[in-house]
């Protein structure tokens, strides 16, 4: 299936296109490992779900890191929100930041929902983005205001219920995946999974309702071209 062997996949039994497709299916759609196994089996590719999991960890992490480095500078309006996750019978909080177009900037799983936790998220955002936002939009949780005063005092802060709907909606894919995986098993698992999932989701976040069909198809084709370059192989036909 592969005309030009990729050294990144050397030593693996299956062609690069198969591995690339398995990783794409698992992180692009709310599928379980066993579902991906069955979809590959339908294409005549016999592989275990545990192999798919290992591919996802190894190649998915490399792909996500490269996509993150190649990503263009995001919008200067950051929207933040936090959601409760039940992990191992304990309450954890998933903090997430998106820009005005819905691209995920970063996530952080923490056991606390206070100013210290909010400050940790903001510092991580500043380190990764390299610049301060023009506007910070949050709900009325007082922890955001306290953290912002210390980390970015000159940034405009808008606090109002409903203004950060785009950030609230960005939690939906995580909730769907949590149900598919019969709940996440640990905070580390959530953090690791989302660190791979979100850059891939950003690549295919094309906002179909905001562009003509021709433009959307062109953008989608470009996304697949970028995937092929970053993953080192095209998707299997």
UniProtKB/TrEMBL annotation:
Keywords: DNA recombination, DNA-binding, Transposition. Residues 77-204 form the DDE domain. GO terms for molecular function: DNA binding. Residues 173-182 have a biased composition (Basic residues). Residues 149-182 are annotated as: Disordered. This is IS6 family transposase. NCBIfam families: transpos_IS6. GO terms for biological process: DNA recombination; transposition. Pfam families: DDE_Tnp_IS240. PANTHER family: BLL1675 PROTEIN (PTHR35528). The keyword tRNA-binding does not apply.
